[in-house]
Each structure stands twice: as structure tokens, then as C-alpha cells.
Write a structure and sequence with these properties.
6-stranded parallel sheet; alpha/beta; about 20% strand
């Protein structure tokens, strides 16, 4: 079985969110299952700068995109046993950052077309399955059904398309159809939606298998509240839909080896976690009080992450005697609110409005509870990392949060976290109070921590589900 991942991100080369983590870890685990895996990425400027001495040039050729013919350089690099290929075009990718440019539609249309054209130039066997993700590579299955229709070489490829977050669909004006994408009018219906081109919609229809990053999110997407206008299209293609829960890189997120921590620990040496709490309190100017339940949050400060609920209940959380640490960037109004509250509650609250990976790890290790009240959450990785570090998540029952965190029941002593159901600040507050109450009962707390740290969110189980999915295509 031979699979080629075509993606706009993969750790360690490019990451702006969970997509990069997934494409960085899943191929490695699939290889352990006997799958031959390769990954194809754009050659961003930062990759050229950071990996210049490891990149091996293979070949250069032209790639046609509608009436254009643009240069493509093919480079190769092996990392952690996985072979990565990079497509070079400085016109499109010699820039700061990955997205947010006026010509993103053209940049990633070219990348999708170049990925297909580059397959014939790859060393080794031809891939059987092309696994694409998000709107940036949505045109891969679309091009196969349109531009390459009737081409025998391309007719045997099977495609998997994964929705990591339906919020970003790749919507553009109809004028791009022929001039930019080189797709003629007879196929306009494949891409048209509400008067625009919708790349994700087209990929949902064109792909052979459609996946999302958790079973619950797959079911949620069938309904208007979560489907963001695509729910009817997904319902029509439900026969090829499945939800496979993401995993995390347990070698990377490992409290026993994490070099960013004040003290390493395992379940059997859990008492050492207290050193991380004390160090975090000192670092962020909080009162060094071991008895105060420390609640951490790491993530984007945007509405669908449930930040509005936290804003509404902020003072009440502090009134419970808790300390609150928030790390993240996002809406300016939210950033200003949390910075203002941290100033008002000096010694009891902190807000760092920046992206800081090492600080995130110290929060996972130093906090007692981890608050993640998302309105929608396709999968979520932060709650899994928190569990790995023995920090108990408080989550809303949605998407991957519902699939990874179960409510602790003192009677059965089962469950690894605290959950609530409704999009309501006071329902969330009730969950926070339950978490704090468990923290103040040492015997119960030991049991819930044990359940948390024994939770397995490695890629092993999920990778086996992907293998079954691929086998069904072949």
C-alpha cells in the first residue's frame, strides 16, 4: 500500500495549527503499520532557510495552470524515516508566513496541480492513494475529476480528503474557474455554491473517501449549526464519510522527558508535578500557593473556542479561590480584556497574548485544571496533551472533546475529566466548581489523575483505522 500525503503543513517544517501536527506524526505511525508513506509540501521560505543543507534537488520542470506555465523545482528530504518532497516556486512561496495573501487561491491551485504533475517525477513506486487536507489541497481530487478526466495515468489514483476545520472552506469568485484553475464551464457545478466557487465543497463531492478528525465532529457536520453551509453537501456524501480521532505525538509531549519543564515526572512520581506549578506561578507573577487550584488555558482567543463564556464567568472563577492563566492570541477585544483582568487580579491571574510553545508546555505541566469550553472543536489536541501531563481538562461535550474526555464519576471511579453540555457560561461554571471540588479532595483527585495519565492518545489506534480506510479503497 502506497500513500502520498499532499498538505500545506507538516511538523517540523511548517505549522500554523493542528494540521501540521497531524501530518507530522500520522505518516510515521502508518509506516509502522507497513504502509509506504511519503509527504509533499510547498517549499516555503522558512524551510529553505532552515533545511538548506539537507534538501536534495531532484528535478525542475514546468507546471501548467490554465494558460500559465510556472517553474517547479522538486526537492527531497528524509526526516524520522519519512520521505518528504518539497515543490519550489519562489513566485508563490518566497514569503513570510504561509497564508493570508491576496493570491492564495492561485498559490494553492498551483501547488495542487504541481503535486499531481510531480508524481511522475518521484523516485520509487507510484502512489495508489492521495491523502489531502483542508481547502489548500482541495483541488487535488477536483483536478483529477476535471482537468485530468480521461487521462489513463491519473485514472487509477484514489483520493482521501480530510476536513480538519470546516470554518475555512476556500471561497472565491466564479471568474477564477477558467482563468485561474483551468476548469471549463461544464464542470462549474462541481465547484459552485451560493454563487461562488467553494473548494472544500468540490473536494467533498470529488473525493473517494471523506474523513474528519473525530467521530462526533463527523456527525455534527450533518447539521447546520456545525456544517457552516456545507451540511447538505456532506449529507449527500455521507456514504463515504468517517470520523477518525486524531492522536498526539507522545514522544514529543512527554512529561517524563520534556526539557522545558522545571521537573520531569510520571504517574508514579506525580508529586514532582508540584515543582512545575510553583515554577509557573513564579514565572507569571502568581502567588506561590500550592493549595490554590491553578486553571490553565492555551489556544486561540476567538468566539468558537468558547472564550465568550470565560469572559462572562471570569470574576466568578476567581471568586472560587482559583488562579487563572491564559496563553493565546486572537481577537483584539479578548486580548485586551484578559490583559486587563490580569492587571486587576495581580497575583491571581495572568494573560500572555503571544504564541509560545515552551510556555504552553509549562502550563500543561504546571496547571491543575485545563479549561477548554469550545463551542465547536473538530478534534482538539490541547485536552489530550493536558491529560498526558496529568492536568484535568474541563471541556464542553462537542467534537473531539466529547470523544477524548469522559466525565469522572466518584461512584464508579471512571472518567478522566470534567464535562458540561450547553453553550452557557453558568453551565461551564458548574463544571469549574466540580473540578475545584475534586482538587480539594486528595483521594478523589489521585484517582482522576491516574485515569487521565493512563489515557492513550497515541497515533497507534487511529493509524490502524486509516489503514482499514485505505484498504477499502484498494
Amino acid at each position: 500500500m502506497n500513500v502520498l500525503f499532499i498538505s500545506s503543513e507538516a511538523v517540523p517544517f511548517a505549522k500554523s495549527g493542528g494540521l501540521g501536527d497531524v501530518i507530522g506524526a500520522l505518516p510515521r505511525e502508518l509506516q509502522k503499520q507497513g504502509v509506504e508513506v511519503r509527504v509533499m509540501l510547498p517549499l516555503y521560505q522558512t524551510i529553505k532557510e532552515n533545511y538548506a543543507d539537507r534538501l536534495k534537488f531532484i528535478e525542475a520542470y514546468g507546471v501548467g495552470l490554465s494558460w500559465r506555465i510556472e517553474h517547479c523545482g522538486l526537492f527531497e528530504l528524509e526526516h524520522d524515516g519519512v520521505r518528504f518532497y518539497f515543490l519550489d516556486n519562489e513566485k508563490y512561496f518566497r514569503r513570510e508566513g504561509y497564508y493570508g495573501y491576496y493570491d492564495d487561491a492561485e498559490r494553492f491551485a498551483w501547488f495542487s496541480k504541481a503535486a499531481l504533475d510531480s508524481i511522475a517525477h518521484l523516485p520509487g513506486d507510484r502512489p495508489e492513494i492521495l491523502h489531502c487536507s483542508e481547502w489548500q489541497t482541495a483541488l487535488v481530487p477536483v483536478f483529477l475529476k476535471t482537468v485530468y478526466r480521461g487521462n489513463e495515468y491519473f485514472s487509477k489514483f484514489k483520493t482521501v480528503f480530510t476536513i480538519h476545520n470546516i470554518e475555512y472552506q476556500g471561497r472565491y469568485g466564479m471568474e477564477l474557474l477558467s482563468d485561474m484553475f483551468g476548469i471549463d464551464g461544464r464542470d462549474a457545478g462541481l465547484l459552485r455554491m451560493d454563487g461562488d466557487l467553494n473548494l472544500m465543497k468540490a473536494a467533498i463531492v470529488a473525493c473517494d473517501k471523506l474523513t474528519t478528525v473525530s467521530p462526533t465532529y463527523a456527525q455534527e457536520l450533518l447539521y447546520p449549526f456545525y456544517g457552516r453551509g456545507l451540511q447538505d453537501i456532506i449529507r449527500e456524501n455521507e456514504y463515504k464519510l468517517s470520523g477518525i480521532l486524531n492522536g498526539i505525538d507522545v514522544s514529543l509531549f512527554n512529561p517524563s522527558k520534556d526539557q522545558t519543564l522545571a521537573a520531569n515526572y510520571t504517574l508514579s512520581t506525580f508529586s514532582k508535578k508540584a515543582k512545575n506549578k510553583a515554577a509557573l506561578q513564579k514565572e507569571l507573577g502568581l502567588a506561590e500557593d500550592e493549595s490554590a487550584p491553578l486553571i490553565g488555558m492555551v489556544g486561540r482567543l476567538v468566539e468558537h473556542k468558547g472564550i465568550g463564556l470565560v469572559r462572562e464567568a471570569y470574576d466568578t472563577i476567581l471568586e472560587e479561590g482559583a488562579q487563572l492563566v491564559i496563553l493565546g492570541t486572537g481577537s483584539e477585544s479578548y486580548e485586551n480584556f484578559f490583559k486587563g483582568k490580569a492587571w486587576a487580579y495581580q497575583g491571581r491571574a495572568a494573560a500572555v497574548t503571544a504564541f509560545a510553545g515552551s510556555l504552553a508546555n509549562r502550563i500543561y505541566a504546571g496547571a491543575d485544571l485545563f479549561l477548554m469550553p469550545s463551542i465547536s472543536e473538530p478534534c482538539g489536541l490541547a485536552q489530550m496533551i493536558a491529560l498526558r501531563y496529568g492536568t484535568i481538562p474541563i471541556v464542553r461535550e462537542t467534537g473531539g472533546l466529547a470523544d477524548s474526555v469522559s466525565a469522572y464519576n466518584p461512584e464508579t471511579e471512571k472518567g478522566n475529566g470534567i464535562t458540561f453540555a450547553s453553550i452557557n457560561a453558568w453551565d461551564m461554571m458548574d463544571a469549574v466548581r466540580r473540578g475545584i471540588a475534586f482538587y480539594r479532595q486528595p483521594e478523589q483527585w489521585k484517582k482522576i489523575v491516574k485515569n487521565a495519565m493512563k489515557s492513550d492518545f497515541s497515533w497507534k489506534k487511529s493509524s490502524k483505522e486509516y489503514v482499514c480506510l485505505y484498504q477499502s479503497l484498494l
